[in-house]
Amino acid sequence: xxxxxxxxxxxxxxxxxxGKKERRLEIPSSKSLIQGNRTYITNFIEITNSIRRDPKxxxxxxxxxxxxxxxxxxxxxxxxxxVMNSLIRKKVDDYIKEFVYCKECNRPDTRLEKxxxxxxxxxxxxxxxxxxxxx
Length: 135
Fold this sequence. Notes:
The chain has helices at residues 4-14, 44-51, 55-66, 85-99; strands spanning 32-35, 38-41, 70-73, 76-80, 110-115, 118-123, 129-131. By secondary structure, the chain is α+β, with helices and mostly antiparallel strands. The chain is flat, with a radius of gyration of 21 Å. The termini are far apart. The mean pLDDT is 90.
């Protein structure tokens, strides 16, 4: 006859990790490189692909929030001036909170839709539709 501890060990092995909450949206951390008076975000396209947003939209947001002009060049974003990577990460996180996650169900299954001059955040999970601010 098995002891209580043996049965408990067997049961814990057969049960999946219930307490572990898995994030559905895995966003790569921004990788930046400062050369001279320019800052290069080397994995910019990876970030935009993971959040399913237009690179132009995120770039425009970063230009405005960081108060730095710039442009895209292949897979990277080039900012005029020196910007710390921690500040870039914070601004990307702010963008994701505002323009990616649904305000109703808090899921990342959204897309931006433009109707006329108004941009809506449409949730594919719950169907909510919210007006977004212009950048």
